[in-house]
């Protein structure tokens, strides 16, 4: 993962300065893909699109914030032989925009700032992923066993009490926002239906045609729906033949 510059942004509500860390490149090595579409990729972090303003506490769409400057990564500046950047103290003090938490997302679903269809869809998908956190079980993973398992055993009931009522209405609203003509959307809609316990409708959608690798994911979701299992689960990655067409040198390497 290669860090890019840190953007200094003025919030659209009151002009308060914030920092946003960008990345030049990343990859999905060691990443986990979940059935709800969430990709846990330490080396490919997703840039947050929703933030709470550090000045006035309003929520804002990060893309609406005006860029007022950039802070270069000091390491890459030094290897390029450039002198140390003179960064204004107010830029250094500006809060860093992080991943929105469940509270922010729960508030964002009714905030007029996110009324546009694409924003509403993004907010609701993020909320879906966030509400699924206590259900992401990874038995056998040391990090899960040592940290997340005891964490959710301790906090899971409280989380469920606080946010549990949002889960089904959020998925119902998302069903309206997924376009069945689009294969990606159709797969996500089928998964939302499975997580709502509407297995027959889920299977009907999954019986339509999917190109690979979506078909590979659809078959795994179908298996769970047939077993009447509505919990989010870890998807297996598709086999290599479903990935991008092999490069000639890669094919040669495989033959020898
Ligand atoms: Zn503000």
Features:
binds zinc ion, 3-stranded antiparallel beta sheet, alpha+beta, 2 domains, 10 helices, 256 residues
In a few lines, what is going on in this structure?
This protein has 256 residues and is α+β, with helices and mostly antiparallel strands. Helices cover 42% and strands 13% of the residues.
Averaging pLDDT over every residue, what do you get?
A: 90
Biggest sheet statistics: 3 strands, antiparallel
State the total count of DSSP E strands: 7
Could you name the ranges where pLDDT drops below 50 across 5 or more consecutive residues?
246-256
Can you list the strand order of the major beta sheet? Answer: 2-1-7
Helix amount: 40-55%
For the record, the count of structural domains works out to 2
What ligands are attached or bound here? zinc ion
Shape by Cα distribution = globular
- Helix and strand succession? EEEEEEEHHHHHHHHHH
Strand content: 5-15%
Q: What is the count of DSSP helices, taking H or I runs of 4+ residues?
A: 10
Sheet/helix structural class: alpha+beta
What's the Cα radius of gyration?
A: 21 Å
How far apart the termini lie comes to 31 Å
Tell me what you see in this structure.
- The chain has ten helices and seven strands.
- It has 256 residues and is α+β, with helices and mostly antiparallel strands.
- The chain has two domains: 92 residues, no CATH class; 139 residues, no CATH class.
- The strands form three sheets. Strands 2-1-7 form a three-stranded antiparallel sheet. Strands 3-4 form a two-stranded antiparallel ribbon. It has a two-stranded antiparallel sheet with strand order 5-6.
- It is globular.
- The two termini are 31 Å apart.
- It binds zinc ion (ZN).
- Zinc ion binds next to loops.
């Amino acid at each position: 993962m290669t860090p890019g510059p840190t953007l200094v942004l003025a919030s659209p509500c009151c002009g308060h300065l914030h920092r946003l860390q960008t990345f030049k490149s990343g990859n999905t090595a060691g990443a986990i893909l979940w059935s709800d579409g969430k990709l846990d990729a330490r080396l490919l972090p997703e840039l947050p699109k929703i933030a709470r303003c550090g000045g006035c506490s309003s929520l804002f769409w990060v893309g609406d914030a005006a860029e007022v400057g950039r802070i270069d990564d000091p390491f890459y500046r030094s290897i390029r032989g450039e002198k140390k950047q003179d960064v204004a103290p107010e830029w250094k003090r500006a809060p860093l925009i992080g991943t929105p938490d469940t509270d922010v997302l729960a508030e964002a679903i009714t905030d007029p700032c996110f009324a546009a269809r694409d924003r509403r869809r993004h907010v609701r998908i993020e909320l879906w992923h966030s509400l699924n956190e206590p259900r992401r079980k990874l038995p056998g993973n040391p990090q899960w066993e040592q940290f997340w398992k005891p964490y959710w055993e301790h906090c899971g009931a409280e989380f469920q009490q606080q946010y549990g009522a949002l889960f089904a209405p959020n998925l119902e609203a998302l069903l309206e926002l997924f376009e069945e003509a689009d294969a990606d959307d159709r797969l996500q809609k089928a998964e939302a239906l499975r997580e709502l316990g509407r297995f027959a409708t889920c299977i009907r959608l999954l019986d339509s045609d999917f190109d690979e690798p979506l078909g590979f994911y659809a078959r795994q979701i179908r298996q769970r729906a047939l077993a009447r299992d509505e919990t989010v689960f870890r998807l297996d990655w598709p086999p290599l033949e479903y990935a991008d067409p092999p490069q000639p040198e890669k094919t040669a390497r495989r033959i020898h």
